[in-house]
Design goal:
The mean pLDDT is 94. The protein has 5 helices and 8 strands; from the N terminus they run βαβββαβαβαβαβ. 28% of the residues are buried. The radius of gyration is 18 Å and the shape is globular. An 8-stranded mixed beta sheet has the order 1-2-3-4-5-8-6-7. It starts with a strand and ends with a strand. β2 and β3 form a beta hairpin. 26% of the residues lie in helices and 34% in strands. It folds into 2 domains: 124 residues, Gcn5-related N-acetyltransferase (GNAT) (Aminopeptidase, 3-Layer(aba) Sandwich); 50 residues, no CATH class. By secondary structure, it is an alpha+beta fold.
């Protein structure tokens, strides 16, 4: 099957969502469900891969601030994974980021084995780390209460998403069912 990489257009939004959601379902980002595509990326650095029938099968959105380009979203629909689509999207992103004046391309991701392997295989180096902690009443009714010191009167936390220091990982894994190491990957463009 042939795939083409092109710029994202507003007409792609529904297909963008239909690509991203199933691509994230079996990863550590399974609950990062969006109802609309965020508009945080840089013009010309929002790319899609389409098949020969113009069906969107891959996405990559990248923002640029000064000499740093950051991948905000990268995903390939599960029916089209392991065909080099992510690599093609990344190669085009690197070229465009370089042309936009960036010298470094980075991405932050959680501890999902396949995702980490992909970034490493693409030549990214891992550096900074911190924790993502989920405190969810529906996982364990006491988690949200353990995550806040003094809730406001009349409010009861039900689900919280928190950042924490990597040094606290062992303790937090003992308190919460869902703790992820968030990792920074970067490369020269």
């Amino acid at each position: 099957m042939n795939y083409t990489v092109r710029e994202y257009t507003p007409a792609d939004e529904t297909a963008w969502l239909h690509c991203r959601v199933p691509a994230f379902l079996n990863t550590a980002y399974f609950d990062d469900v969006l109802r609309a595509r965020p508009s945080t990326s840089a013009p010309g650095l929002d790319l899609v891969a389409v098949d020969e029938h113009d069906r969107l099968v891959g996405i990559i959105d990248t923002s640029v601030e000064g000499d740093l380009a950051t991948i905000d979203t990268v995903a390939v629909h599960p029916d089209h994974q392991h065909r080099g689509i992510g690599r093609r999207l990344l190669e085009e992103t690197r070229s465009r980021a370089r042309a936009a004046g960036a010298s470094t391309l980075d991405a932050w991701t959680r501890d999902d084995a396949d995702t980490l392997a992909w970034y490493r295989a693409m030549g990214f180096a891992e550096s900074d780390h911190y924790l993502h902690v989920y405190a969810n009443y529906y996982t364990s009714s006491g988690e949200p209460g353990r995550a806040v010191e003094a809730p406001r009167p009349g409010l009861r936390p039900v689900a919280l998403f928190l950042h924490a220091k990597l040094a606290d990982e062992e303790r937090l894994r003992g308190e919460f069912a869902r703790v992820h190491v968030c990792r920074r990957f970067s490369m020269a463009v």
